[in-house]
Each structure stands twice: as structure tokens, then as C-alpha cells.
Design brief:
This protein is mainly alpha-helical. It contains seven helices and no strands.
């Protein structure tokens, strides 16, 4: 029987693996539009001061931050999995792990991205950073609540016998309605975008892909660890059954 510590350990391992994958993606893919944006920013700047850290140091620091962030998310993922494991939908450990990771990706990344997609360094007014942070942070909290409510609605419909297409439609419509209202209520990004559209969308797609890769790797590693534990425990459970002992 897996305990909370086991789930926590698996979450840490899976999170570190996902963070490492995100760090490599950042270095190989996301760094290109970032350097493009930095060149635009430097061309428009009137400051003659040299940056405190070189770009190479910043890249290494960013990769390390990605690994640590993945580790943190993995620990939280493990805690949630330990507390809700037997209530999670899905066929087997891998199905449960993937569904939990999908819900986390939607709540923590995809929904906030739809309203406030990331922008490269050349975009963003320092005077509006508090306003933007508050809007993004409150939407992030609301997004987590919306996903939890959709999850509980799905579970309630299942317990009342509403399954299949009806369950999917009711949950999807309720979630979409709440999400649509929230997008109307939350303020728009106040900063104008004055850099090439190709740069903006390349950075945004790369950023979303980086996060999706991290959650995918995390789910796969966590699910495989859970499946290996389940396979190892199966012979012991059979051996402990009364009919197996009596025979």
C-alpha cells in the first residue's frame, strides 16, 4: 500500500524530470525568440550600462530555475495525488496520473495563457507590473477553483448516474460558461505590443510548449513509477489471500 511519503518521492522525481525537460527546451527553443526580443530592446534603449549578468549566466540561471520550479510543482503534484488518488478517474495508475497532470496544466498554465499570454522581454511597461501581476495571480487562483468545481461536478454527475455524453456535455458547458464570464470580468493587458507579431507568437507558442512538455514528462514519469509499484505489489497481494495460503 503506497503511503504519502511514497507519492511525495515520486512527485519530486517526476517534477525534477519535467523541470529538466523544460530547461532543455528553454535552452534549445525558447532562447531564440528571447534573444531576438533582447536585440530589439537594446536597440530602443538609451542606457549605456552593462547588464549585471551576461546572457550566458542568465540562461544557466533560467535553466536552474526551471528545474527547481518543476521540482516544486512535482512535490505539490505528489501531495495532491496522495490525497485524491483513489478518487481520480482513469484506467490504472498511468491513467490517473495523466488526468491529474492534464487538470493541473489546464488550471495553472492554459487558462491563464488564454487571457494573459506571455510576452518576450521587449514587451511590458515597468509601471504596470503590479497591475499585471495582480490580474494574472487572481485569474490563476480562480482557474484552479474552476477546475476543482468542474471536477466535483463530474464526480457528482457520475454518482447520480449521469455518464457518457451527457456528463461530458454538462460539465463542459458549465466550465466553458464560467470561464467565458471570467474572461469578460478580468481586465485586459494594459501594455501595448510594438514588436513584430511573428516574434510575439513564436515566443508564446514556445512558452506554452515548454510548459506542456514539463507536465507531460511529469505525468509520464509519475505514472510509470506508480505502475511499477502496482506490478511489484500484485504478487504480494495474491500471496496474502486466504485461498492462496490454504492451497
Amino acid at each position: 500500500m503506497d503511503n504519502a511519503r511514497t507519492f511525495l518521492t515520486r512527485g519530486a522525481i517526476a517534477g525534477a524530470a519535467g523541470g529538466l525537460a523544460a530547461a532543455l527546451f528553454q535552452w534549445l527553443v525558447t532562447e531564440r525568440p528571447i534573444r531576438w526580443a533582447l536585440r530589439i530592446e537594446e536597440a530602443a534603449s538609451t542606457s549605456t550600462e552593462e547588464p549585471m549578468f551576461s546572457r550566458s549566466t542568465q540562461v544557466v540561471g533560467g535553466m536552474l530555475a526551471a528545474v527547481l520550479f518543476g521540482l516544486f510543482l512535482g512535490v505539490v503534484y505528489g501531495v495532491v495525488a496522495a490525497s485524491q488518488w483513489h478518487r481520480l478517474p482513469g484506467d490504472g495508475p498511468f491513467g490517473r496520473a495523466s488526468r491529474l497532470a492534464t487538470a493541473a496544466f489546464v488550471a495553472l498554465t492554459f487558462v491563464p495563457f488564454l487571457k494573459y499570454p506571455g510576452n518576450p522581454p521587449a514587451v511590458g511597461d515597468p509601471d504596470t507590473v503590479n497591475e499585471r501581476t495582480l490580474a494574472y495571480g487572481t485569474l490563476l487562483v480562480a482557474s484552479v477553483i474552476f477546475v476543482l468545481l468542474a471536477w466535483y461536478l463530474w464526480d457528482h454527475l457520475t454518482r447520480t448516474g449521469i455518464v457518457g455524453a451527457r456528463r461530458f456535455a454538462l460539465t463542459g458547458l458549465a466550465y466553458s460558461a464560467v470561464l467565458g464570464v471570467s474572461f469578460l470580468v478580468w481586465p485586459a493587458n494594459p501594455d501595448p505590443i510594438e514588436v513584430p507579431a511573428k516574434l510575439i507568437w513564436r515566443f508564446r507558442v514556445d512558452s506554452l510548449g515548454q510548459s506542456a512538455l514539463m507536465w507531460t514528462v511529469m505525468a509520464v514519469v509519475f505514472g510509470l513509477l506508480c505502475e511499477r509499484s502496482a506490478r511489484a505489489a500484485a504478487p504480494r497481494e495474491v500471496a496474502c489471500r486466504p485461498e492462496a495460503v490454504s492451497s
